[in-house]
Amino acid sequence: MDPVRFPDFPALVKQIHDEGLKVILWATSMVNTENPDYDFAVKNKYLVRDSRGFVRPLKWWHGSGGLLDYSNPEAVAWWHSLMDRVLDAGVDGFKCDGTDPYIIEYSLTGGALGYQDKVITYPEYAHMYYRDFFYYTREKRAADGPDAGLIMSRPVDCNLDDVTKLCTPFSPKDVMLSGWVGDDDATFRGMEGCLRKTIYSAWMNYANFGCDIGGYRGKDSTFSKTLFVRWTQLGSFMSLMENGGGGEHRPWMYDEETVNIYRHFTVQHHRLAPYMHTMGANALSTGTSSMHPVDEQVIDANTTTIGRKDFKIVFPQPRSYSYRLGDDILVHPVVFHFENKTDAATVHMSFPDEKDGSTAVWLDWWRPNDEDKTHKSGDKKFREVPLNSYAVYVREGALMPLYAASVDPNGVDRVDLNRVMFTWFHPAASKATESNRKRFDMRESISTGEGLRAEGYYTADGVLVGEVSARDIAGGFEFVGVEKPSNVEIEAWEGSPCVDLYNPVTKTLQVSCRNLRGGMRVKVTA
Length: 526
Fold this sequence. Notes:
By secondary structure, this protein is an alpha+beta fold. The protein contains nine helices and 31 strands. It has helices at 9-18, 38-43, 73-87, 104-107, 122-140, 188-203, 225-236, 256-271, 273-286, and strands at 24-27, 30-32, 58-60, 63-67, 93-96, 150-152, 156-160, 165-169, 179-180, 209-210, 212-213, 242-243, 291-293, 313-314, 323-325, 329-332, 345-350, 361-364, 375-376, 380-385, 391-395, 399-407, 413-425, 438-442, 452-458, 464-468, 474-480, 487-492, 498-503, 508-513, 520-525. The protein has a six-stranded antiparallel sheet with strand order 13-15-16-21-18-19. The chain has a five-stranded mixed sheet with strand order 22-23-27-30-29. A hairpin with a 2-residue loop joins β3 (58-60) and β4 (63-67). The relative contact order is 0.07.
C-alpha cells in the first residue's frame, strides 16, 4: 500500500461504501522484477518456472515479472496475506486482468513447471488464477453476505485482424459472473471487434459481459463524438456498461448533445437493471448466456474445459451482429459509420422467431405503439438511425421489471432506483387467462431481498388483472398499449397510498403504490 497516495485507505473505502458504491481493485497474477518481494518469491519457488527450472522474466504491458504458482500451497498462502491488506480494509473484489496467457511463452519452449516440478498447462493456470481470486474474496467477504465479493474477468478475448480470428476463453464460467471482453481500439473497427467477442462469449455460454465504451486503446488525441455516442448506446444495452480507457471518455468534454444522449442511455441501462439482473442470474443458474445472438452457433463444449490442449479457438465470422438481451429485448447495433451531415447510420435488421419457433412480433422500444415501426419474425429491413437513437425492440406481450423512469421539469431524464414497475407491452397480445397467466419472477441479490413475482391475465369478461407479490419497496404495473379504462380498482396494503395515471399519447396506464409490503392487485376495466 502506498502511504503517500493512500494515507488512510480504510477510511477511503468506507467513504465510498457510505455513498452506496463498491470498491473493485485492478489485479493480476504477476510479480514484477522491481517488486521488493520478487527475489523472495523466486527463492521460495513461489513463481512458475520454465522447463529448466528457472523463473525467466516474462515481458508484459506493465514491465517484466513472473507468474504466481497457484499449484504451490505455500505460494498461495503468501499471496493471500498480500490480498488481506486490502480485503481487510473493506475492498469488495478485483478486476483480474489477463496475465494468464503469458504462461504460454513457457509452454511453447518446453513446458511451464509448478509445484514439485509438475507441468502446468495454460487452461489449468487460468482456472487456478481466476478461481483463487474469486473464492478467496468470497471467503473474506462472507460476513457481508453469501453474495458479497466478486471478480471481473474476461470471457472470450481475441487477436483480431484481417487474417486471424484467434480467440481464447480466459475465465472458468463459475467465477465469471460479469466481465469485459478485453481491450479494443478506439475506432469503429474496434467496436466491431467488441461485438464479435461478445457474440463469441455468448456462443460459449458465458453469462454476462460488455466492453469499454469508446474503446480502451485510445490515445490522448482520440476525440470522436460519433464513436463515443454509438458505443455508449451499445454499452447501455449490454449486461455490463463500462466506460474507461485512453482517449476522451468524459461526455461533457464533447458538447451538450453528447451529455444529453449519454445521460438518456445511461438512464435506460439503470432502468433495465431489474430485468438484466434476473436474466443474468438465470443465465448463471442454467449455464447459458444473457445475450442470445440472432446468428446462433454451437461451439464444442470441450473447448472451454480445463483439459483442453489448444491455446486458441478459431471462431466463424458472425453473419449478424444483432442479439437478444435476455428473452425479450432485441438489439440491432450500429457497427459501421459513414460521414454525413447528421451522423445518422443505416442498420440491417433481421427479426427472429419466438424461442419455440412460432411467429414473434417486435415493437419499437422507444415507440411501442407505432405500427409503422412494428415488425414480425422473418422481416428483413434497413433502418436509418439518427445519432440520438438506437435500433432496439421489445417482444410484444413481454412482461418485465423496470425501474421507474421520468423526465423532470427541466427535460432531464431520471430513474427511480427505489420503484420497480412491472411493464407489460401490449398485454392483450399475450392472450393470458386466469388458468394460463403471464408471469415474471424477478431475482435479487440475497442481501437485497427475496425478489418479486408479477402475474397478469384477463378474466372471462375481459377485465385486465395484475398482481405483484409482497415486498417492502415502491412499485406496481405499467400497461403499455391499452385503451383508456373506465375503471381501475386497486387492492394494496392499507398503509400504502396508490395512484393510477393514464397517458393517452402513449396509451400507457401506470398503477403504482408507495409500498408493496402487502402486495398489490389491480383490476382494469375497459
